[in-house]
Write a structure and sequence with these properties.
single chain; about 650 residues; alpha/beta; Rossmann fold; 3 domains; 7-stranded mixed β-sheet; 21 helices; globular; binds fructose -6-phosphate
Length: about 650
């Protein structure tokens, strides 16, 4: 029986969804609900039985609970917890165990009785697991059942570790992890091969018995699975869809995770809209794509039969709307990413003046510049602008151990061939070999090894930037300190990085800054690198006049591209430029063939880059624009 939903706006949503502006606000709300439950139970002299989750999602909820404990006296004395899952096999003391996670995030900082804490045991022999799982279920029941279960959601749609294929009535059991789940965990384990293949998880049936269920999701990365979980058909392909059958569940999302829900993504399908320029552009592109028609061929009937009658009525005739949107998109296309000298720039993405601009391309890792905007990079240099590139981090984690050894061997052999004394270097080499022989998965390298790995990437970046046409003095290696600090410290402050970035900006005084604007990975290096640039520019705006004329352009990393309606500058590449860009990417030899961190994409970086730019070109072409070989896309950051 479908859930009765009287609100038009949420007509497509098959379970209750609350959307908060950001992760912080949403996490505080969830923490408050947990605190209320604990206090209510306390007042009645009862225990509060909580089902807890691990992963990135609940981190801020736990932090807020810890704050409430410290500052507001929230006590956990009456709290009993059952965690959803644990890897198998897994020692509780291992850095990646969920026991360690729960202690670090919550239990070590509150007054919970550790006898009341239950986390599936990853150390049991295989033949004891089934019985243990039954006991885990019985223990939950004996505690009075879960008062509240909190959940995250995996990109496979898993809840707990109930991967696609799980049954709705499943109980606690040993399961095999999905490949995507293991890839997502690979960063914690220093490579997918180190991620356990199995886990013990509460079942979907176990979760269902909770008296209250909250599923949380933050970030763009979760948007597409959230749409499936909330609006899709119930199916074992997306286990979270089973939650649609529960009348106790609520999804708590931030705006980004909710962004693909119909009411946000295509709001004209569920309600009357305020049609500003951006919404109109988005809707017209959506309509053209849906009907597989170029923009200028869309008719009134197309508008009316696809939920866009309001736009046609209020702003029609539709042909005028089509032409207006078409022109706006046409004006994003430019072969002059640094502005076209002596041309009317009123409809161009960049200013004509000054004709020769100073541009800095910030590259979070040593190859993002050429992978993500190599064609534009080459064009800017070809067109005579003063182009600088600033490599923000050394990228030293993403080099294979054997490559590091090979380079030191080279240095020793070269020294020997020149009759130099290489004894010290040989000693160092031996100690590196010793270290690498016993290196644990995800263990941080020694300083020397990190240095060698960083130098390998530095050499490649110089080769790439020179190939793109830069003189050596315009190639800057920032080696921002946060990158190495992050490997040993959990909490890092970015002050030194911001100051260093301000120094470079003050030296170059750029008219254009290009920065990687990837926000899908909230704690990822790209996001941190962007925040540092933004902070630096924001602070400099207070004191330096040139900053008012400095435009900040965002490009995207190797995986995702901006949506067509968002793009403000589209730089077409000729087949020859695509080829040159490919050769620039090839200079990054340590990242070729099989990089250390391939992410969830088996393609090599140059292939991803070419696929992505040719897809953008195809998308423009399908809307009725000229057919280009490839297009690199940019969005301009607007300062408040
Ligand atoms: C964690 C768990 C998983 C995670 C899910 C999302 O105990 O069972 O279902 O909730 O994989 O992980 P994050 O929050 O890291 O995105």
């Amino acid at each position: 029986m479908p859930r009765l939903n009287l609100l038009e706006e949420t007509r497509f949503e098959k379970l209750p969804v609350s959307v908060f502006p950001d992760e912080n606000t949403a996490s505080r709300h969830v923490a408050q609900r947990i605190a209320n439950l604990i206090k209510e139970k306390q007042a009645n002299g009862q225990q509060a039985v909580l089902g807890l989750a691990t992963g990135a999602t609940p981190v801020k909820v736990y932090a807020e609970l810890v704050r409430m404990h410290r500052e507001e006296g929230l006590s956990f004395k009456n709290v009993v917890t059952f965690n959803l899952d644990e890897y198998y096999p897994m020692e509780p003391t291992a850095a990646q165990s969920y026991v360690t996670f729960m202690k670090e995030q919550l239990f070590n900082h509150v007054d919970i009785d550790m006898n009341n804490v239950n986390i599936p045991d990853g150390t049991l022999p295989l033949d004891k697991v089934a019985e243990y799982c039954l006991n885990y279920e019985q223990k939950i029941i004996a505690s009075g059942g879960l008062d509240l279960q909190i959940l995250g959601i995996g990109r496979t749609g898993h809840i707990g570790f109930n991967e696609p294929g799980s049954a709705p009535n499943s109980g606690t059991r040993l399961v095999t992890l999905n490949d995507l789940t293991r890839r997502d965990a690979s960063r914690d384990f220093g490579g997918k091969n180190n991620v356990p293949v199995k886990a013990i998880t509460m079942g979907i049936g176990t979760i269902f018995q909770a008296r209250d269920i909250i599923l949380m999701a933050w970030n763009k990365k979760k948007a597409s699975i959230i749409k499936k979980a909330v609006e899709g058909e119930i199916s074992s392909d997306v286990p979270a869809t089973y939650l649609q059958l529960s009348d106790k569940v609520e999804f708590i999302l931030d705006e980004e995770a909710a962004s693909e829900l119909t009411r946000f993504d295509t709001p004209w399908l569920v309600k009357d809209c305020v049609w500003d320029g951006q919404m109109t552009k988005k809707a017209v592109i959506w309509l053209a794509n849906k009907l597989n028609k170029p923009i200028l061929k869309l008719t009134l009937e197309d508008y009316n039969s696809n939920g866009m009658a309001q736009l046609a009525t209020e702003f029609g005739p539709v042909y005028d709307i089509n032409i207006d949107v078409f022109n706006k998109i046409q004006h994003t296309i430019t072969g002059w990413p640094g502005g076209k000298p002596n041309a009317d720039d009123s409809q161009r993405p960049e200013r004509a003046l000054p004709a020769k601009k100073r541009s800095i391309i910030f590259s979070p890792h040593p190859d993002d510049d050429v992978i993500s905007m190599g064609g534009t990079f080459i064009r800017l240099a070809d067109q005579g602008h003063e182009v600088h590139v600033a490599y923000q981090t050394s990228g030293n984690t993403a080099v294979w151990d054997e490559d590091a050894l090979r380079f030191v061997e080279f240095a020793i052999d070269f020294g020997k061939s020149q009759n130099q004394d290489v004894q010290e270097m040989e000693n160092l080499y031996q100690s590196m070999r010793e270290f690498l022989k016993d290196k644990k998965p995800n263990q941080a390298d020694t300083l020397e090894i990190r240095t060698v790995k960083g130098l390998i990437r530095k050499g490649e970046a110089i080769a790439g930037a020179r190939f793109a046409g830069l003189p050596d003095e315009h190639i800057h290696f920032m080696d921002l300190p946060f990158y190495d600090k992050g490997k040993v410290q959990k909490v890092v402050d970015y002050e030194d990085d911001i100051v260093q970035t301000m120094e470079l900006l003050k030296k170059v005084k750029p008219h254009q800054v290009f920065a990687a604007g990837d926000f899908a990975d909230p704690h990822g290096t790209h996001k941190v690198c962007f925040d540092i640039i933004l902070q630096a520019l924001t602070r400099l705006r207070e004191t330096e006049d040139w900053v008012a004329d400095c435009w900040l352009w965002l490009y995207r990393g190797a995986w995702h591209e901006f949506e067509i309606y968002e793009i403000e500058m589209a730089v077409p590449l000729s087949p020859q430029e695509v080829e040159r860009k490919r050769l620039a990417i090839f200079k990054h030899q340590s990242q070729k063939d099989r990089p250390v961190f391939p992410g969830d994409d088996a393609r090599e970086f140059w292939v991803r880059a070419e696929d992505r730019t040719s897809e953008t070109a195809r998308a423009y072409n399908q809307l009725g624009f000229a057919e280009y070989e490839a297009i690199e896309a940019f969005v301009r950051w607007k300062f408040d």
